[in-house]
Design brief:
alpha/beta; Barwin-like endoglucanases; 36% strand
Protein backbone atom coordinates (compact mmCIF):
# COMPACT_ATOMS: atom_id res chain seq x y z
CA UNK A 1 0.00 0.00 0.00
CA UNK A 2 1.44 3.34 -1.05
CA UNK A 3 0.83 6.57 0.84
CA UNK A 4 -0.86 9.34 -1.10
CA UNK A 5 1.65 12.06 -2.08
CA UNK A 6 -0.52 14.83 -0.60
CA UNK A 7 -0.82 13.01 2.74
CA UNK A 8 2.92 12.40 2.86
CA UNK A 9 3.56 16.08 2.08
CA UNK A 10 1.16 17.19 4.85
CA UNK A 11 2.76 14.92 7.44
CA UNK A 12 6.27 16.03 6.47
CA UNK A 13 5.29 19.70 6.54
CA UNK A 14 3.64 19.33 9.94
CA UNK A 15 6.64 17.58 11.48
CA UNK A 16 9.02 20.27 10.16
CA UNK A 17 6.71 22.98 11.50
CA UNK A 18 6.45 21.30 14.91
CA UNK A 19 10.24 21.16 15.27
CA UNK A 20 10.80 24.72 14.04
CA UNK A 21 8.49 26.33 16.62
CA UNK A 22 10.40 27.56 19.67
CA UNK A 23 9.34 26.03 22.94
CA UNK A 24 8.41 28.91 25.27
CA UNK A 25 8.01 28.54 29.00
CA UNK A 26 7.66 30.81 32.00
CA UNK A 27 8.59 30.26 35.60
CA UNK A 28 11.14 31.11 38.24
CA UNK A 29 14.78 31.84 37.55
CA UNK A 30 17.68 32.10 39.96
CA UNK A 31 21.39 32.71 39.51
CA UNK A 32 24.52 30.87 40.53
CA UNK A 33 28.08 31.96 41.15
CA UNK A 34 29.72 28.59 40.78
CA UNK A 35 30.33 26.07 38.03
CA UNK A 36 31.81 26.44 34.60
CA UNK A 37 33.36 29.80 33.80
CA UNK A 38 32.21 31.44 30.58
CA UNK A 39 34.74 32.70 28.12
CA UNK A 40 34.93 36.35 27.06
CA UNK A 41 32.08 37.49 29.32
CA UNK A 42 29.56 35.25 27.58
CA UNK A 43 26.14 35.05 29.23
CA UNK A 44 25.44 31.45 30.22
CA UNK A 45 22.73 29.48 31.99
CA UNK A 46 21.70 26.05 33.20
CA UNK A 47 18.56 24.30 31.92
CA UNK A 48 17.26 20.79 32.60
CA UNK A 49 16.37 19.71 29.07
CA UNK A 50 17.62 22.13 26.42
CA UNK A 51 20.70 20.92 24.51
CA UNK A 52 24.14 22.18 25.52
CA UNK A 53 25.16 25.08 23.33
CA UNK A 54 21.61 26.17 22.51
CA UNK A 55 20.80 29.85 22.97
CA UNK A 56 17.84 30.88 25.13
CA UNK A 57 16.10 34.24 25.17
CA UNK A 58 15.29 35.10 28.78
CA UNK A 59 12.98 38.05 29.55
CA UNK A 60 12.32 39.79 32.85
CA UNK A 61 10.87 43.21 33.65
CA UNK A 62 11.13 44.54 30.11
CA UNK A 63 14.68 43.30 29.57
CA UNK A 64 15.68 40.41 27.32
CA UNK A 65 19.05 38.66 27.13
CA UNK A 66 20.39 35.75 25.14
CA UNK A 67 22.34 33.15 27.07
CA UNK A 68 23.97 29.86 26.09
CA UNK A 69 23.13 26.61 27.93
CA UNK A 70 26.35 25.17 29.36
CA UNK A 71 25.12 23.28 32.43
CA UNK A 72 22.21 21.25 33.82
CA UNK A 73 19.85 22.56 36.45
CA UNK A 74 18.17 24.06 38.34
CA UNK A 75 17.38 21.23 40.68
CA UNK A 76 14.95 23.15 42.87
CA UNK A 77 11.26 22.52 42.17
CA UNK A 78 9.51 25.36 40.39
CA UNK A 79 12.61 26.90 38.84
CA UNK A 80 13.11 26.62 35.10
CA UNK A 81 16.51 28.23 34.55
CA UNK A 82 19.65 29.16 36.51
CA UNK A 83 21.59 32.13 35.17
CA UNK A 84 25.26 32.91 35.59
CA UNK A 85 26.10 36.04 37.58
CA UNK A 86 26.88 38.11 34.43
CA UNK A 87 23.57 36.99 32.87
CA UNK A 88 21.62 37.82 36.05
CA UNK A 89 23.32 41.21 36.22
CA UNK A 90 22.45 41.93 32.57
CA UNK A 91 18.83 40.97 33.27
CA UNK A 92 18.67 43.21 36.36
CA UNK A 93 17.68 40.51 38.85
CA UNK A 94 20.68 40.52 41.22
CA UNK A 95 18.91 42.21 44.12
CA UNK A 96 15.79 40.04 43.85
CA UNK A 97 17.59 36.68 43.64
CA UNK A 98 14.63 34.69 42.30
CA UNK A 99 12.30 36.21 39.70
CA UNK A 100 9.59 35.10 37.27
CA UNK A 101 10.93 35.00 33.71
CA UNK A 102 9.89 34.00 30.24
CA UNK A 103 12.22 31.65 28.32
CA UNK A 104 12.17 31.02 24.58
Amino acid sequence: MRAQPSLLFCLTSFSLFAFSVAHAESGLASYYGYGKAAKNGELTCAHRTRPFGSVLRVSYSGRTIQCRVNDRGPFIRGRIVDLSVPAARALGMMSAGVVRVSVE
